[in-house]
Design goal:
Elements lengths: L27 H16 L4 E3 L9 E5 L8 E13 L2 E5 L9 E5 L2 E7 L5 E7 H14 L10 H16 L5
Antiparallel strand pairs: 1-2, 2-3, 3-6, 4-5, 6-7
The structure holds zinc ion.
The site of zinc ion has 5 residues, from helix 2.
Length: about 170
Amino acid sequence: MALMRIVHYPEPVLLTVGKPVGDGEFGADLERTVADMFDTMRDAGGVGLAAPQVGLSQRFFVMDVAKEGQPDPQVFINPEIMSVEGEQIGDEGCLSFPGLYQSVKRDMRVIVRAQDVKGELIERDLTDLAARCVLHETDHCDGIVFLDRMTALKRELAKRKIKHLQKTGKWE
Ligand SMILES: [Zn+2]
């Protein structure tokens, strides 16, 4: 098990659009990185982790939104949101914003296309937490953080809380 360093806001890689993973980049190195990202995500107690969060400016992420207590690891490489429907409002956290939880409005259902770790095309139709997670992580691939999805008021409150966490040494 190899843990990677999770970068925290406002490191620039989190605010940069990731590069698509090219056909020639699939293979053993990518598979190892994905395995390390799963280890890192689980160790940190998260349900999703995108490449920019471990300092890689690329468009892919891992997630595991356990179903009825059963692990359900999924990898999305070059994710594209094809359609969305409905809405959900709920608290959201992010491993790059340690200790910050804030209410964010998201679509209730998403259809996402991507490639799996072998490069095969996949399409998933997801709802609820899985949809929220795919939207949050696809945003990371595009240099967008959940702060950007909050209302202006909540964003100001969140920024104040971040400053406080930084001052008290709880934000590395
Ligand atoms: Zn995040």
